[in-house]
């Protein structure tokens, strides 16, 4: 995020003493992160906006406690998870949108042949679709790891599950994604396919 821990602590302390300007900076700093995680939980943009609003309202309501929070990222993830569960309990039918709407394909660079660009685009589209079709818990764990860079222990804490459960869900996700992509791209090595799945190529392409 490019912000030092001490700066975050100072920002949280300012919010905790009713500094609305500090809260606005906090909101702008964390909005995208909170929205992404809400999307991982719900998969529907309008629902995410409602949940994100509820999360930040809750943060402001409990602002006096912010200065005592050691890990604001974990605090926000847990808040989003809880608000998402409450939203799902109120709304049984959600219209899921494709992961492509949240993770648009990056613009192609000039390097490489048109055929290579086309193959990479096809792989990206197939990967996004495969991720979108993973079982809900499996998809959530995978995206928390790949997109948010969270460790197994952090994911387990946020989701209130055992670390072994997180590892099992990650294993299932990888197996399903490889099984989905490999038949369509048989000439790509297993290691390169894993690099692609975990965003090494996806982010740098």
Automatic annotation (TrEMBL):
Q: Which UniProt keywords apply?
A: Sigma factor, Transcription, Transcription regulation
The RNA polymerase sigma-70 region domain covers which part of the protein? 27-90
Answer whether the UniProt record assigns the keyword Transcription to this protein: yes
Molecular function per GO: DNA binding; sigma factor activity
Identify the residues that the record assigns to the RNA polymerase sigma factor 70 region 4 type domain, covering every copy.
Answer: 124-177
A Pfam family of this chain:
Sigma70_r2
Q: Name one GO biological process term.
A: DNA-templated transcription initiation
- Coiled coil (residue ranges): none
As for family, the record states: Belongs to the sigma-70 factor family. ECF subfamily.
Q: What is this protein called?
A: Probable RNA polymerase sigma factor fecI
What species is this protein from? Parabacteroides distasonis
Q: What is the lineage of its organism?
A: Bacteria, Pseudomonadati, Bacteroidota, Bacteroidia, Bacteroidales
